[in-house]
Amino acid sequence: MSLCNEKGKWYIAVRGFRSQDMKRIAVYCGSCMGNRAEYRRAAEELGHLMVSRNIGLVYGGGSIGLMGAIAQTVLDDGGEAIGVIPRFLENEEIVHRHLTELHLVDTMHQRKMKMAELADGFIALPGGFGTLEEWFEMLTWAQIGHHRKPIALLNVSGYFDPLLEMIRRGCEECFIPSECHDMVIHDSDPSRLLDRMNSFRPVGPEKRNGLEKV
Ligand code: AMP
Description:
By secondary structure, this protein is α/β, with parallel strands linked by helices.
């Protein structure tokens, strides 16, 4: 165990911790397909892998874009797909009507909280502002100790290279603590990504003022 002081905060780096095998993962991804066939293929590959490893999908509940693609793959393979969607997006994102579970909520904040509660880890696939916003919120919650679940990027065709570069830059310029930088698990291969998430060792307070909320 080691202690370090970043920005006046004390963190405990816990060694030898192995996260429990994940039962469910929240996947954030685009509400459209993007312009490369690889994006859809990656969403489907991740869906197949999750079912083969007995990992349920938690996602935004829509039937469109990459999120629809991964949900349909999981369902076709006989897996669990849980959607969480705000009522006001039900039509816009064409809610998937054949999910294992569908949670209708009132606000975007409730959606993010519910998805975070249901999942044991978080992955972003390529997507736009919505994907980035939801994924970053999980990262910032981890940074302040609200949860200790693994957070990952499936870096399909280098889509997230500029984001990883930005995170490195933030670290170099002392805006992002190095242990928070290390929280971001990334890989271009979905199978390796899941393995790395399973062996993730959280760094940070085990519990802070009872704030381990999700
Ligand atoms: P996008 O990556 O922009 O295609 O959006 C992916 C998902 O993020 C969609 O289900 C959007 O409804 C959702 N989303 C968009 N903006 C927000 C936000 N501010 N908070 C939470 N979810 C959002």
